[in-house]
Amino acid sequence: MCLVCIAFASWVLKSTNPDSGDTWKAVLLANISALSAIRYLRRRDATGEKPLRQTPSV
Length: 58
Fold this sequence. Notes:
Elements: H1 2-15, H2 23-46
Helix pairs in contact: 1-2
């Protein structure tokens, strides 16, 4: 789900016309989506769930 939010935020920013007066709405929507994804990942880490990707220890 968090990847969907990040992808959506990226798509919104790429598809926005910078000359229009409604650019701030797209930026706000993208930021909310990105913050939601970050909060989800932090909450998942705090609960002790298995991380999305495990790195091998050296």
